[in-house]
């Protein structure tokens, strides 16, 4: 159970290795018979069904081991990305995201996603470079003077979006959006706490960095407003 990448990679190799044979030899037979079946997609679908069976058996065994569960989710997301982008799999066919969307698994995914996001926020705000812009020496890039912690936080939100965007239902996506809103509010509270420590030096370096962070986050969120 600690090596899901073994069977996920194996299936991707089978799909890749058989694609030419299926397209050149099997598809013409189906076409000649007047069948609407796509040989390559049907082959891929059957192998994905095997993966769904394997996942359904494995997930209960590692549901409460954060490290193993996170590793499984990461590997499944990588598998899905390659399946769609490289092998032309269709969203209308069964996929691993349906397994990850099942209640017990999904709630666990949300829980660990939040846990690791909060840990990441702890480390980014305690970093020595938290309030320094990594582009401070490049004038034309650094118009907003964004401190490192704000940029890292928005990257964190973007990565979370990228992880859940292929979930099959809007209701599951909205639950992840709810998590992102919680994280934004948590980050706001953390910024407020740091700001209160800096009120005596309102023109000081860190106070200005906090204002720049807030401005940057508000601007990026406004840019994301058109993303359904």
TrEMBL record:
It comes from Climacteris rufus (rufous treecreeper). One of its GO terms (cellular component) is Dsl1/NZR complex. Pfam families: RINT1_TIP1. InterPro entries: RINT1_Tip20. One of its GO terms (biological process) is regulation of ER to Golgi vesicle-mediated transport. Transmembrane segments: none annotated. This is RINT1 protein. It comes from the Eukaryota.
């Amino acid at each position: 159970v600690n090596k899901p990448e073994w069977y996920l990679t194996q299936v991707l190799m089978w799909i890749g290795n058989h694609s030419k044979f299926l397209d050149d030899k099997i598809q013409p037979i189906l076409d000649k018979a007047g069948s609407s079946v796509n040989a390559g997609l049907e082959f891929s679908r059957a192998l994905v069904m095997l993966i769904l069976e394997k996942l359904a058996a494995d997930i209960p065994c590692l549901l409460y081991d954060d490290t193993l569960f996170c590793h499984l989710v990461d590997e499944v997301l990588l598998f899905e990305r390659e399946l769609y982008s490289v092998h032309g799999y269709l969203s209308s066919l069964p996929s691993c995201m349906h397994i990850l969307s099942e209640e017990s698994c999904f709630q666990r995914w949300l829980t660990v996603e939040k846990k690791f996001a909060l840990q990441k926020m702890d480390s980014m705000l305690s970093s020595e470079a938290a309030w320094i812009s990594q582009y401070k020496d490049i004038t034309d890039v650094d118009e907003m003077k964004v401190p490192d912690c704000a940029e890292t936080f928005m990257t964190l939100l973007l990565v979370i979006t990228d992880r859940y965007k292929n979930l099959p239902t809007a209701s599951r996506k909205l639950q992840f959006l709810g998590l992102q809103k919680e994280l934004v509010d948590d980050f706001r509270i953390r910024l407020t706490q740091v700001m209160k420590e800096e009120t005596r030096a309102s023109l000081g370096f860190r106070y200005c960095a906090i204002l720049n962070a807030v401005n940057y986050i508000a601007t990026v969120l406004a840019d994301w407003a058109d993303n359904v």
